[in-house]
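Quick check before the chapter quiz. The format below is the same one you will see on the exam, so make sure you can read both the input and the output lines.
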Amino acid sequence: MSRIEMVPQAALTAEQAAVCAEAVSGPRGRVPAPMIGWLRSPELARRAQKLGELLRFGTSLEPRLTELAILVCGRHWTSHHEWTAHKALGLKAGLNAGVIADIAARRVPDFDCERQRVVYDFSTVLLASGQVPQELYDQGVCILGEPGVVELVGVLGYYCLVALTLNAFELGIPENIAPELEDPRFPATGPTA
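Here is the expected output.
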């Protein structure tokens, strides 16, 4: 059960209601799950959801690359709700189901696309070490362009915030437990993904 619930519509402050309306009128068409927590600080909610909107829908990275980076981040933090949502979005964007299964199992996927390979390598190395070696950085710039690398780092940073928010408040739990993540905190009794 989530530790924090959505503020009921009738109890929203004017500022909270405005933030929710802004999110609903954007490309998501709804209030994103982490906003349930962020709404307790409406300005954080406003700014974070706008940043997320940009990073998810307004970068030079094609959707399957963005979803790949988000899945690597969701797996890194074992964020069940993030994983469940973005697994479906990744499949819709054209990610191979085997690649997604490998990420869930912490195996290095076999990519047939150089852009996916560099996003995966860059993301896993940066999340694991907090740094990127020069050779990998140069490869990222060569394949994704400098704007793409900057946007990739932004996607990873934002989705770390999302994962930590979802995990701290156990948002989307237990209904979005992803058994393939093998998380001892939550026995594999949730719905299969």
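If your answer matched, good. Residues 55 and 132 are 20 Å apart (CA to CA).
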